Amino acid sequence: MKITILYDNSIFKEGLLPDWGFAAFIEFQNKKILFDTGGNGRILLSNMKKMNISPREVDEIFLSHHHFDHIGGLSAFLNKNNNVTVYAPSSLRGIKNAAKLKYIDTSTELHENIYSTGELAGIEQSLLLKTDKGIVIIAGCSHPGLESIIKTATAYGRPYAVIGGFHGFDNYPVLQDLKLVCPTHCTMHIKEIKEMYRDKYVKGGAGRIIKI
């Protein structure tokens, strides 16, 4: 599995553009999934180009929730490649031009070893990827609470990693059994998480590549 952070508040690779929002490109089991689209299509497409990722490579788009910093780049992306399946939480309406649009309500298998948590707390879904090492969780902002997301993930296996926005999460012992933690975007307590879990902390930022 290869996860490339394309959009984040900070940059990991020089030359990319930072901006408030999140997006990641996931390569797993012959699927190429764009998780969220950041807040600005120009920045998303620019960072993709600099990371040598063509919009035409993307098979599917997984949208975590309706906040603009996660879906603002969608229209610009679809202008480059609309031959994709978009998985959106049921509360997110108004998506146009995608070849296929599937709304997600409850926890669902999208493909073998690829799942959605379902729309938790009526606002947000997270992506779950089942690997030999355990479940890799990709979260947008963790509005339903990271505790709830991790608990939902356990239905599919032992959580191994969590990558994405943690929002105001500060229940740090919840992370102790994970092997990899990469807090990005809206996470308020990155410094505390890094200090407490130096052995498993991975710095985010646009351009960071994580291989699992």
Descriptive overview:
This protein is α/β, with parallel strands linked by helices and 212 residues long. Helices cover 17% and strands 30% of the residues. The strands form two sheets. It has a seven-stranded mixed β-sheet with strand order 6-5-4-3-2-1-13. A six-stranded mixed β-sheet has the order 7-8-9-10-11-12, with helices on one face. The chain has helices at 41-50, 68-71, 74-80, 146-153, 190-196, and strands spanning 2-7, 23-28, 31-35, 60-62, 85-89, 100-104, 108-111, 114-116, 127-131, 134-139, 159-165, 180-184, 209-211.
Q: Uncertain runs with pLDDT below 50, 5 residues or more?
A: none
Number of beta-strand segments: 13
Helix count equals 5
Distance between the termini: 5 Å
Question: For the largest beta sheet, what order do the strands appear in spatially?
Answer: 6-5-4-3-2-1-13
- Mean of all residue-level pLDDT scores: 97
Order of helices and strands: EEEHEHHEEEEEEHEEHE
Query: Into which percentage range does the β-strand content fall?
Result: 25-35%
The oligomeric state is single chain
